[in-house]
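It is worth pausing here to work through a concrete case rather than discussing structure prediction in the abstract. The textbook approach is simple: state the sequence, then state the predicted structure, then interpret. We follow exactly that order.
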Amino acid sequence: MSKVYIVEDNDRMRTLLREWIDELPGLDVCGAAASAEDALPEMADAQPDLAVIDMSLPGMGGIELVATLRDRQPRMRCLILSGHNERTYVARALAAGAQGYLLKGEPGEIENAIARVLSGERYLSASLKGAVSQGA
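Step two, the predicted structure:
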């Protein structure tokens, strides 16, 4: 069973993510928080295998949280969840250590994105692949 931690500031989205992920076989949501500052101490205790992180968080942003997690818990995988489809955001997230970048407008991809990132692969939303390979 792989443990997943969700960091999403929108209450409704956080609840939906928890429900979706808990329904997927082999996955257990071990915690959720509305901010990076709340998530960091909880993740240190929960030791999740994967963090699903909103790009735009209050206070410490998603990219900064990924970089912090890479330092503190290098085995944890990070999947950015974002409404930003610009190449620069994707490139910055991957450079910070995220293994995946999933657009919020593509919820049908969440199961595949999580599975691929947990298996050690990089995952990009289908609509991003061409843009990123062309120079980001």
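Step three, interpretation. The helical segments are 11-23, 36-46, 62-72, 87-96, 110-118, 129-133. Strands lie at 2-7, 27-33, 50-54, 77-82, 100-103, 123-124.
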